[in-house]
Amino acid sequence: MNQIDEQKLSFVLRHYRPGMFDTQKAWEKVSGVASRRQVRRILLWAMPAAAALILGVFFSWRNTWTEYNAYDLAQAFTLKDGTHVTLAPGATLSYQPHKAPRQVEMTGKVHYDVVQDEAHPLRVTAPAATVTVLGTVFQVSDSRVDVTEGRVRVDGSQGESVILTAGQSALLKDGVPTLEETTLPNPSAWAIGVFRYEATPLDDVLKDLSAYYGVPLQVKGDSTGKSLTGEFSTDNLDEILELIGLALDVELVRE
Amino acid sequence: MLQSKEIETLFRTYYRPLCLYALHYLGDPEAVEDVVQESFTALWRQENPVANGKAWLYSAVRNRRTGKNEPLPSDLDGLISDDEAEDRSALEARLWTAVDSLPEMRRKCLLLAKRDGLSYKEIADELNLSEHTVRNHISRALETLREGAPQMLDFIFSFF
Q1: What is the ipTM score, two decimals?
Q2: What is the value of pTM for the model shown?
Q3: How many CB atoms lie within 10 A of CB A201?
Q4: pLDDT tens, A132-161?
Q5: A30 and B111: CB-CB below 8 Å?
């Protein structure tokens, strides 16, 4: 490293604190401020009408739904009870914070990390099924439910149910949930930004990565008996391929 | 008026560089984040079209230092041009991110050595490690940062 870079590094290290200058957190703060401002402007303008509505609003307060949308990027939100949700592009979610059981209605694909609360199970209503949980990590879309931690009950819209535990998935076809036997290891990589493998056969790893990035991947040579354990950030496919190649002594190519 | 999508892209690209840019003359990191966030909010509220969001933001942050009538801060005064200060902040932001993504032990050892000036022996005692392990952590950490820096430079040039 040359002189200048050494200077920059020592400046950075002198001021570095973990969690400082966190772009994501700051963005949530700034974008939140901006939308609140807009709301305030609208309220001012609508003041006379609002006065007439106040009584009605007061009585319907407990039935209020809070709405979240993701447009062309995945968006993460924290609900009032501390549950973390990540919405895939195009997904919508609305939440009723004042009622027990906790209730969420959604469309599209949503990943959940639910705060445990024995007294108040969370109920997620999607077009094809209703999912009831205590504290778990899972995701729901129009076609399937994947559970990463804990246990959930899936009630299909036709009345049939399955219970899923960590690592299991259910397909939702015509509103009927069926347990899926072969599951990709990281259904939620898009939401949490990480691929995790634990003694996963190399062929399954490649299937997983192919599905995520939409590119066919091949091993040059023999992959039998090779398996992978580790964690990779989803940022850079080439880097992942290189690391796996080094770890398992194989060459991986995009076809 | 810029679309919120454009603002978000500017934010995700320049938030950290702008923070490091401001950190050179505002010692207090909290004041830094306030100044940078206020600049984005101001950009958001601009009624007139803004042609170059990046340039607008850098000058907004520059003008929001302690007050326009005060002398230029010593760290930027005459030593390097505004352009150089902008490039420097982009590189420092990359280094910051690289430090952020070091494995925790490596980062701890590196900070204790380079920021707090502790000897390998003192770090080893504090963290309950052997001196050899401490030396290893630090040299691995520096290696990662050194390898990262030139790539970062390439990245920045190809990006603009």
Answers
A1: 0.82
A2: 0.45
A3: 16
A4: 887 788 999 888 899 988 888 999 888 888
A5: no
